[in-house]
Design brief:
Strand content: 15-25%
Largest sheet: 6 strands, mixed
Structural class: alpha/beta
CATH class of the largest domain: Alpha Beta
Distance between the termini: 52 Å
Order of helices and strands: HEEEHEEHHHEHEHEEH
Radius of gyration: 19 Å
Number of domains: 2
Bound molecules: adenosine-5'-triphosphate, magnesium ion
Shape: globular
């Protein structure tokens, strides 16, 4: 028996494992139905699908902010999401930057580290590093209202990165930005991921964004929210502007738009 337990612990399995996940909200909305999802450590996975297909619900569940009505969810092969004191860390970035308007960019990035009670030299070092990583060195003293939407989002990403998360959850973080800014941030995020190698789960409506960023795209459909299919994107190396014209990119976009339009023609998608 003891041997079996040790053998199990030695095989960590996926970082996130969801099986038979079901979510019915109090008002009767079936937000997710029988979702199976595995995410490996270090992977960059996008959840792609139309409005209302349960992407945010699934992401909030992974964050431990929402309970499944049914099914199994495991974090690092454990039945509960990690607590703040655990070594495994989860950070979340929302669609809105959600910055404190009265604090500077640096102050915003420092806050979670101060709340975690880290020693001052470490707070100073990590928050400065994170701001530099997102390209905001020189803007430490700026208030959110003095920054553009894209820069505010960079501060929100720096705030998440400064906590050195093992798992970064991002819910349409660039959805409100113009296409040029979004593309730039996508490129920078991909470079940061390649440098830090944390696990990222990224929610988006955009096929192009999902393909550009991810190793794997999980396609979801609505009513009820479910996983339709998963696509592995070729091209492990650096992805710059050129990748948007590469055969691997074009082919993945074609396959995904085909599967999404098929989903909309299916009876379950007929109302949209
Ligand atoms: N707290 C809630 N109470 C009741 N219903 C909810 C709640 N949150 C979400 N829903 C419903 O569950 C379904 C899935 O919602 P969810 O927000 O997860 O979708 P989404 O894919 O993130 O959509 P969007 O792309 O618009 O953000 C929708 O029908 C939504 O109306
Ligand atoms: Mg959402």
């Amino acid at each position: 028996m003891a041997e079996a337990v040790i053998a199990d612990a030695a095989r960590p399995g996926p970082l996130i494992l969801g099986d038979g996940l079901h979510k019915v909200y109090d008002n009767g909305t079936e937000a997710l139905k029988d979702v199976h999802l595995e995410i490996a450590a270090g992977e960059f996975v996008s959840l792609l699908g139309p409005s209302g297909c349960g992407k945010s619900t699934l992401l909030r569940m992974i964050a431990g902010l929402e309970q499944p009505s049914n099914g199994v969810l495991r974090w690092w092969n454990r039945p509960r999401p990690p607590r703040r004191a655990d070594r495994e860390r989860i950070a979340m970035v929302f669609q809105e930057p959600t910055l404190m308007p009265w604090a500077t960019a640096l102050g915003n990035v420092r806050l979670p580290l101060e709340l975690a009670g880290l020693p001052e030299p470490l707070i100073a070092q990590r928050s400065q590093e994170a701001l530099t990583l997102v390209g905001l060195a020189g803007f430490e003293k700026s208030r959110p209202r003095e920054l553009s939407g894209g820069m505010q989002m960079r501060v929100a990403i720096a705030r998440a990165l400064a906590t050195e998360p093992d798992l970064l959850l991002m819910d349409e973080p660039f959805g409100a930005l113009d296409e040029f800014t979004r593309n730039r941030l996508d490129e920078d995020l991909r470079a940061i991921w390649r440098e830090r190698r944390m696990t990222v789960v990224f929610v988006t409506h955009s096929i192009y964004e999902a393909v550009f960023l991810s190793q794997r795209v999980v396609v979801m459909a609505a009513r009820p929210g479910r996983v339709l299919e998963q696509l592995q994107v070729a091209g492990e190396g650096e992805r710059g502007e050129d990748f948007r014209h590469a055969p691997a990119f074009v082919e993945a976009c074609r396959l995904l738009s085909q599967s999404i339009s098929l989903a909309h023609r299916s009876p379950a998608g007929a109302h949209s």
